């Protein structure tokens, strides 16, 4: 008998309900990944793999390829969001369906969410749309966090 994992508890049940509402089967692998993202926004696939245990979940094995397949399924279903800051591996988060952006530290790689000041998508309008119907703008601001600046106060 396997020992219970967080994906088996209340969070796992909530993840299962969410999967069903999106029309996806509630598999142990999908529940494990959703649960592993709780409290750990902007996780890489490697971090998720380490968090759920390499090669297994409570109900079956999860290979590296299986992990990426589940991440792709959850992203396409808009249960998770994938961001890809330049020079960084893809990051995954549960915060979807709103219009938020990200701050990325050039020093340590810290990523923080930032609410959009406009509130509705897209936050920006291109000078020329080239025939596209624009429905979203993804913004990443780059800089140094307080720790990398030596703890100095935010400059105005």
Compile the SSE list and pairings.
Layout: H1 10-21, H2 28-37, H3 45-52, H4 64-76, E1 81-83, E2 91-93, E3 100-105, E4 111-115, E5 140-143
Parallel strand pairs: 3-5
Antiparallel strand pairs: 1-2, 3-4
Helix pairs in contact: 1-2, 2-3
Structure described in brief:
With 156 residues, this protein is an alpha+beta fold. Helices cover 28% and strands 13% of the residues.
Description:
The chain has 156 residues and is α+β, with helices and mostly antiparallel strands. The chain contains 4 helices and 5 strands, in the order ααααβββββ. The chain has a 3-stranded mixed β-sheet with strand order 4-3-5, with no helix packed on it. A two-stranded antiparallel ribbon has the order 1-2. A hairpin with a 5-residue loop joins strand 3 and strand 4.
Rg on CA atoms, Å = 18 Å
The shape is globular
Task: Give the strand content.
Answer: 5-15%
The residue-averaged pLDDT reads 84
Largest beta sheet: strand ordering:
4-3-5
Number of beta-strand segments = 5
- Please write the string of helix (H) and strand (E) elements: HHHHEEEEE
Q: What key phrases describe this protein's structure?
A:
single chain; 3-stranded mixed sheet; globular
């Amino acid at each position: 008998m396997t020992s219970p994992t967080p994906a088996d508890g209340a969070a796992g049940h909530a993840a299962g309900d969410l999967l069903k509402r999106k029309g996806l089967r509630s598999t142990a692998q999908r529940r494990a990944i959703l649960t592993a993202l709780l409290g750990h926004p902007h996780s890489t696939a490697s971090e998720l793999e380490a968090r759920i245990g390499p090669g297994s979940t409570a109900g079956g094995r999860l290979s590296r390829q299986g992990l990426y397949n589940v991440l792709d399924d959850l992203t396409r279903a808009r249960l998770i969001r994938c961001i890809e800051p330049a020079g960084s591996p893809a990051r995954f988060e549960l915060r979807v369906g709103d219009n938020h952006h990200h701050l990325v530290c050039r020093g340590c790689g810290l990523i923080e969410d930032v609410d959009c000041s406009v509130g509705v998508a897209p936050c920006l309008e291109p000078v020329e749309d080239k025939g596209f119907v624009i429905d979203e703008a993804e913004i990443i601001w780059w800089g140094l966090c307080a720790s990398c600046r030596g703890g100095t106060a935010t400059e105005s």
